[in-house]
Amino acid sequence: MSDPWVRPGWYSETLYDAVSQTIRVDRVVHRDHTEHQDLVIFENAVYGRVLALDGIIQTTTADEFVYHEMIAHVPILAHGRVRRVLIIGGGDGGTLRRALMHPGVERATMVDIDRSVIDLSREYLPEISGQAFDDPRAEIVIADGARWVKDAEGDPERRYDVVIVDSTDPIGPGEVLFTEEFYGDCRALMTPGGVFANQAAVPMLQGEELTTITRRLRPHFADVWAYSAAVPAYYGGLMTFGWATDDTALRRTDADELARRAEAADLVARYYTPELHAGAFALPRYVRDLIAG
User: Residues with catalytic annotation?
Assistant: First the structure.
């Protein structure tokens, strides 16, 4: 490996200008430059297998459950009656897997621009997706997510109760998935009372990004907020997920009701709990200020 984020035996993430994290590369499992991005999968004694794209850590087998459970279970259980889920991005299959844990989900459509990420994740990171890609309820589409969403607006069969944007950061192929136009196009595909969730930001290091996301969501939804989780591999501490819906009551669903829904789904999780779900919307003051803009 001879890229600027790689030095002998170490992988240095280049997401931020002033700070970075460096992870020891114990073994390179696979290296590729796909049609869209630079991809490497390597092993580390702490994080297990690590997937990085264009110098940015995307997921690890050690802590992926935190991110994927929270980006999927929170909107699905808050809604309570989900039949159709749309996932934009998510090529590693972790979000798809969690969405399909809910027996009420009849179809989960996943749209990702890079077939190589899906194929290589299935081959080298199978514990992340499990059997999700082979589930008959899963629909896998290889396409530009923003273009696919816009083209689907006129199709009455393309209506979703939950839309999850499991994207890279707003750099390179993922940049178009953070525009106000894209958020409006997603809203057009959602059923009444539907929930939108996305990978938002690490607010200590990406505060302006969180402010921009919420500002761009507000013209399209009655309730725009964020919720949080601590994902160890995402440098900078607390991570937020964007939240948007027209049903202002959903964000305040209490833990007892969430527990009933999780039990009815026979949900098995390692990070998610109903109490954690309810509390994840209680944010530090500095994060609330960023959302307020």
Answer: 166
